[in-house]
Amino acid sequence: MNMYQILEQAIISGDILLKEELTIQCLEYCNQNQVSEEADFKPKLFKEPSYASKCRIVDPRELPPRKDFDTDEGLATLVHAIAHIEYSAIDLALDAVYRFPKMPMEYKIDWLIVAEDEIRHFKMLKAVLDTLGYEYGDFPVHCGLFDAAEHTADSVLDRMAIVPRYYEASGLDVNPQIIKKLDNRRKHPLVKQLIDVLNVIYEEEIDHVHKGDKWFKYLCEKNALEESIYFEILERYKLLSKHRPHINVEARKEAGFTCSEIKKLGAKECK
Fold it and tell me: Cα separation of 150 and 169, whole Å?
């Protein structure tokens, strides 16, 4: 079995069920076999994200505001936006395995498990969207995470710093704020269902960030680098100065961040 061909097929497919089937196939294979790197294997740089065939991609500034959660359409725009992040995260997790074949087997298994989780998250959100009468692709999206994968394609250290340790960690800050905004509408059955889904995502994303933290630190140690290089990487990608109004101190600590890092990211206190 050529796992990298299967991963490539999973990454470019816009069919969530096929993605799931191929991801499970790769995970089962990794759990039972040694994966040998093909001597002539060169990972492809994908020209467009797998959702390009079903979603209209726009500049982030052109996305509709998500403030009115009292209407089905307003709620659907929120669910769609979160579903899009989870869908994008599937391809990012698969790409982390596909693009960096020299990484250890434990790394491969970790990110295939993350891909499985992200598929499940997407399917849970899709169920809410379906009940609201909408489909994935009904609202415009941005391709920020696809761009992040492209920009970090040559460095697994940058990938671990930017994707799990920056973007997914930022999700730990934002998720509780979304739940707080929805809380006074939880009598609406679909809002309650969405809150339940967001709570599942929140708990599992802590583990995803922790996996990224583990492999970031592994790479720092392997390459005799100080872990403070994290901030140099953020600076290089123009992310360090981004405003972070709600730093989730406890979730970030659970995911592996130090108090020194959390304060440098903008938290006033960390114990």
Answer: 19
- Contact call for residues 252 and 262 (beta carbons, < 8 A): yes
76 close to 138: Cβ distance less than 8 angstroms: yes
Question: Cα(85)–Cα(262) distance, rounded to whole angstroms?
Answer: 23
pLDDT at residue 243, rounded to an integer: 75
- Residue 240's contacts (CB-CB under 8 Å, 6 or more residues apart) are 231, 234
pLDDT tens by residue, 204-219: 999 999 999 999 999 9
- Asked whether the beta carbons of 251 and 206 are under 8 A apart, the reply is yes
Q: What are phi and psi of 60, to 5 degrees?
A: -50, -30
Residues 229 and 220: beta-carbon distance below 8 Å: yes
Q: Which amino acid is at 126?
A: K
Global pTM exceeds 0.70: yes
CB 92 within 8 A of CB 145: yes
